[in-house]
Amino acid sequence: MRNGGGVTGSILYGTREQVGVGRGLAEFRAGRPVVITGDSETLLCLPVEGINPERLNAFRALCAPTVPRLVLTGRRARSLGLDANGAVAIELGSDVDTATVLALVADAKPAFVFLPQPAGPTASAAVDLVKLAQVLPAVLVADTTTAIAGALEPRIIMVEAKAITRFRTEASQSLTIAGEAHVPLNCNVRARFVVFRDAVGDDPVAVIVGTPDLSKPVPVRIHSACLTGDVFGSRRCDCGDQLRLALARLQEAGGGIILYLAQEGRGVGLANKMRTYKLQDAGLDTVDANTMLGFDDDERDYGVAVRMLQMLGCTRVVLLTNNPAKLDGLAKAGIEIAGRMPLETPINADNRRYLTAKAARAGHQLGHLISSLAEPPAPDGDVARLSP
Fold first, then answer.
1. At residue 69, does pLDDT exceed 90?
2. Cis peptide bond N-terminal to 53, omega within 30
3. Residue 73's domain is classified under what CATH number?
């Protein structure tokens, strides 16, 4: 069989850079090292997720005699009290053990002194890749050369740093429609599910309620997947309530669209969302819990949502949201915002602190929450019913 190249190879495989990032993501999710190449440096990289003494020693052996460094996000560095504008790198001498690494990554107050340096663009790209993989946003790196890296281990994937920075945009442009069907729902809504697929392997879904008139502004809800709230009815958030209220509102309006996106935990992934919950149980609010782990307070990108709307022929919307960032994100991408419809859902004793943080720290427009703060809490954790 002849080795396809040129246009044929690009059609079958995508560009070399896209293939590299896709494979690098798979390696990071599996806990395997990759090599990331930049303009002036080449780094051997290993995600901190799942680190243990054996893995740390194996990485040291792989990159010897180079001393490895731990790269943390700027958010994580600032949560530790450092003055950092971007990712930082900390040299890991032979006396640094696994417990020390994990303390630097996730503990509120590591019990030692360290001297970080700016990480540089290639190491920053490694952090971007580990974020895309939705594992802990920290990575071990070691300087190497392309020649040495290729000789280290034939199974190590090489990824270009510049390709990582372009990947999210290119992934949204890679969207295709994978399948669609009519799905009747228990809430007496008849919907059509249109399943998309992108180069990352995510399957965002457009839930089309009724028959929206695309010649007019279409009611649209952009909803981030929330397993705990949408499926299991978690009382810690308002996600499930917002989803059900959005379905009802679209039915009342005669039609509309819900874009259901794979952005669990405001884009950090399900496992990291559980880690932030644990930090919230210890006293942090939802914003500080994200930044304590090294994430931005909101890691979501709405490029996929914009591309889905464009593919559905929907360019003017009335957005069902309390979040101004969604309005700004769509407007900047060329979607005309004709209006906003609030989604004010019940407040209970378990989600009140979460909703308060969203309003006070993230600017969510929750007027019903402000008025409820003057009222005494509902007894025994009962839901405070508010007009939707």
1. yes
2. no
3. 3.90.870.10
Q: Provide the token pair at 300.
A: 């979501």
| Tokens found for residue 222 | 């952009």
Going by the DSSP 8-state scheme, the letter that residue 259 receives in this structure is E
Same structural domain, 201 and 350:
yes
Verify that 145 and 178 share a domain, yes or no: no
Residue 339: what residue type? G
Q: How many contiguous H segments (helices) and E segments (strands) does the chain have?
A: 16, 14
Among 244, 298, 316, 340, the one annotated catalytic: 298
- Catalytic choice (69, 235, 300, 307): 300
Q: Flag whether 33 is in a domain.
A: yes
Q: Is 32 a catalytic residue?
A: no
Spatial distance between the Cα atoms of 155 and 199, rounded to a whole number of angstroms: 22
- Cβ atoms within 10 Å of 228's Cβ, excluding its own: 19
For the beta carbon of residue 29, count every other beta carbon within 10 angstroms.
Answer: 16
Is there a contact between 293 and 276 (Cβ–Cβ < 8 Å)?
Answer: yes
Rg, the chain, Cα only: 23
- The question of whether 298 is a catalytic residue gets the answer yes
Of 100-114, 273-287, 347-361, the poorest mean pLDDT is in: 100-114
Element (H, E) at 182: strand 176-184
Q: Taking 60 as the threshold, does the pLDDT of residue 199 lie above it?
A: yes
Q: What is the DSSP string of 206-223?
A: EEEEE---TTSPEEEEEE
CA distances from 118 to 171, 295, 316, 361, 368 (A): 29, 17, 43, 28, 44
Number of folded domains that form the chain: 2
Least confident of 32-41, 250-259, 323-332: 323-332
- Beta bridge partners of residue 44, listed in sequence order: 35, 142
H-helix or E-strand spanning residue 258: strand 255-261
What long-range pairs does 333-342 form, CB within 8 A, spacing at least 24? 333/302, 333/303, 333/306, 334/306, 335/306, 335/309, 336/217, 338/217, 339/217, 341/219, 341/249, 342/367
Structure-block tokens of residue 376: 């005494």
Q: Which domain holds residue 53?
A: 6-170
Residue 386 lies in a domain: no
- Which of 110, 137, 170 lies at the terminal end of a domain, its last residue? 170
DSSP 8-state class, residue 326: H
- Kindly report the backbone phi and psi dihedral angles of residue 377, in degrees, each rounded to the nearest multiple of 5, phi listed first: -60, 145
Please indicate whether residue 203 or residue 387 has the higher confidence score (pLDDT).
Answer: 203
